[in-house]
Amino acid sequence: MAEAGITVQVCHVLPDSTFLRSLNVPAGTTIGQAVALSGLLQAIPGIDLAVNMVGIHGKKKPLDTVLHEHDRVEVYRPLQADPKEARRRRAGGKSAKG
User: Fold this and answer.
1) Residue 96: DSSP 8-state
2) What's 75's domain CATH number?
3) Residue 23: which domain range?
4) Please, are residues 76 and 54 in contact by the beta-carbon 8 Å criterion?
5) CB within 8 A of 1, min separation 6: which ones?
6) Is pTM, for the whole model, over 0.70?
7) What is the DSSP annotation of 41-88?
8) Confidence of residue 96 (pLDDT cuts 50, 70, 90)
9) Which residues on neighbouring strands pair with residue 55, listed in sequence order?
10) Number of separate domains in the chain
């Protein structure tokens, strides 16, 4: 009897495009394995899993996390700016300049 598979998704969002692939993988597959199987690293060569954080349904997870049925693996883009600093700049408005 063959080991049952699970269905997961791998996604990565860029400002002008989205990579989203559904996969049927063996039970026990990790985040790192699913990303490799999805073809994401070939489709978007600039991704480095040593730098880009990954998660499941919006929660950061390590690459060796074992996936479950219907998990959505998300490969996050690096932050362009520190969110706290950006918030301070927005809150300060024009008064911070003068």
Assistant:
1) G
2) 3.10.20.30
3) 5-92
4) yes
5) none
6) yes
7) HHHSTT--TTTS-EEETTEEE-TTPBP-TT-EEEEPPPPSS-HHHHHH
8) very low
9) 60, 74
10) 1
